[in-house]
Write a structure and sequence with these properties.
Helix content: 25-40%
CATH superfamily: HybD-like
Low-confidence stretches: 154-165
Strand order of the largest sheet: 2-1-3-5-4
Strand content: 15-25%
Mean pLDDT: 89
Shape: globular
Number of helices: 4
Length: 165
């Protein structure tokens, strides 16, 4: 049986702050209440790929997590809509393009998808995540845990950080 909630993060653990996506997925997995074990599936990958459209099948909610150079610190949350863009290559695509592919593949709207972008600044090969990025990760984890348990408002179309206050 497919878990109704998917948490999918991507990034390179060997490239400094780019590790924030997989680190967030791992921390959420480790802190998930046992009672929610069958409700959530956790995946992480080096990058977002075309094949991930299949991972969205049968889900009611999806949380996508990535590091970002451009979001406001400590993180930003965006409710996603399918959008065809020019990001699709053999190596990567945007979250919106992933939803567009899902929609074309299944001839139906994708599940409710939320992007959690965590602010990073240093993505050099062979370096660990920086202290500021790890602080941003801690803040993002608070929001993501509330998202998982349904104790934050995931229905507004704004930056949801304020929903925790």
């Amino acid at each position: 049986m497919t878990a109704p909630i998917l948490v999918l993060g991507w990034g390179n653990l060997s490239r400094g702050d780019d590790a924030l996506g997989p680190l967030c997925v791992a921390a959420l997995h480790d802190s998930l209440p046992a009672s929610m074990g069958s409700l959530v599936e956790f995946l992480d990958d080096h990058q977002l790929n075309l094949e991930h459209a299949l991972d969205l099948t049968g889900r009611t909610r999806v949380l996508l997590i990535d590091a970002s150079l451009t979001c406001r610190p400590p993180f930003e949350v965006t409710l996603l809509q399918p959008e065809q863009d020019d990001s699709f290559t053999t190596h990567t695509l945007s979250p919106q393009a992933l939803l567009h592919i899902y929609q074309n593949l299944h001839d139906m709207p994708p599940p409710h998808c939320t992007l959690l972008a965590i602010r990073g600044s240093a993505f050099e090969l062979g370096t660990p995540p920086g202290s500021a990025a790890l602080d941003h990760l801690d803040s993002a984890l608070q929001w993501a845990r509330a998202w998982l348990t349904g104790t934050t408002d995931t229905g507004c179309d704004c930056d949801l950080r304020g929903c925790l206050d």
